[in-house]
Amino acid sequence: MRDLDQAIAAWRRELSAGGIKSPQALDELESHLREDVQRQVKAGATTEQAFEAAVRRIGAIHALKTEFRKVGGKTSQKLMVAICMVLIAFIVWMSGFTFVQMQFGPAEQFIAYAAVISSLFVACAWRYAVPFLPVISSKAKRMMVGGACIATGIVITNLCSNFVLPHFARGDDRQLPAVGLWLLFVIAVCSCLGLGLMMGPRDREHWGMERRPAS
User: Fold this and answer.
1) Are residues 111 and 149 located together in one domain of the fold?
2) Is the pLDDT of residue 215 over 50?
3) In this structure, what is the dihedral angle of CA atoms 68, 76, 183, 140, given to the nearest 10 degrees?
4) Which residues pair with 170 in a beta bridge?
5) For a Cys-Cys bond, which of 2, 95, 157, 170 suits 183, CB 3.0-4.6 Å?
6) 86 with 45, same domain?
7) Is 175 helix (H, G, I), strand (E, B) or coil?
8) What is the distance, to the nearest Å, from the Cα of residue 184 to the centroid of all Cα atoms in its chain?
9) Domain presence at residue 166
10) What angle, rounded to 10 degrees, do the helices at 139-159 and 182-198 form?
């Protein structure tokens, strides 16, 4: 092989085209490849033979892509779960404190907690609904449709807060009723729906939200 560096550069481009985009991952794979080639050359193989054998040992491009996506996906999922658990605990604690300060009765607390828990459920489980949403091919249309869904939730919430709930305000201080917390559920549903529609095929594949064929 006349130029090992050129062959390795071409190999890196193939890996990148196959889905391995991280420079750190490519550098690590190249390091393993060069070490393997050097060992084989010292053992008597030609540079070309050593390079081809090293490439085969490292693995096919699609196998490498799958492995790196699997490792990255597991790390991302663990981080997402940890963040969700912390946020859920904080939100539930703050909600309980707020309900006590607002002097909600048992029935009102039940309604309020149901609204908060339902909203948290939507926020945590929306990823499982994303595969069933339509995939919009155009990125501009995805952003527009998704943004419209999120805006719809905000508009509905504001209209109800300003024109409907005040008629049911409780007490001399005009506190909004516990049922008003269900507006959080509306925002959660519309926001998650909008974010799901904003995701393209590659985004869904990266986060493991693509629809899998039935076995």
Assistant:
1) yes
2) no
3) -40
4) 175
5) 157
6) no
7) strand
8) 21
9) yes
10) 170
- pLDDT tier, 162 (very low <50, low <70, confident <90, very high otherwise): confident
Q: What is the mean pLDDT of residues 165-183?
A: 76
Residues 79-87: contacts with CB under 8 Å, at least 24 apart = 84/123, 84/124
125 plus 181 within the same structural domain? yes
User: Residue with structure tokens 């393209």?
Assistant: 200
Residues 24 and 96 in one domain: no
pTM of this structure? 0.59
Domain extent, residue 126, equals 80-206
Which residue is associated with the tokens 């539930």? 92
How far apart CA 32 and CA 167 sit, in angstroms, is: 70
Helix (H, G, I), strand (E, B) or coil at 170: strand
Q: What are phi and psi of 134, to 5 degrees?
A: -65, 145
Assigned domain for 132 exists: yes
Indicate whether 184 belongs to any domain.
yes
**What would the pLDDT profile of 82-99 be if each residue is shown by its tens digit?**
776 777 787 778 777 777
Q: Kindly report, residue by residue over 1-34, the tens digit of the pLDDT.
A: 558 888 889 988 888 887 777 788 788 888 888 9
Residues 6 or more apart whose Cβ sits within 8 Å of residue 91: 116, 120
Shared domain check, 100 and 162: yes
Residue range 123-151: average pLDDT? 91
Q: Are both 29 and 126 inside the same structural domain?
A: no
Is 213 inside any structural domain? no
Q: How many CB atoms lie within 10 A of CB 184?
A: 21
d(CA 110, CA 198): 34
CA torsion 183→189→195→197, rounded to 10°?
-130
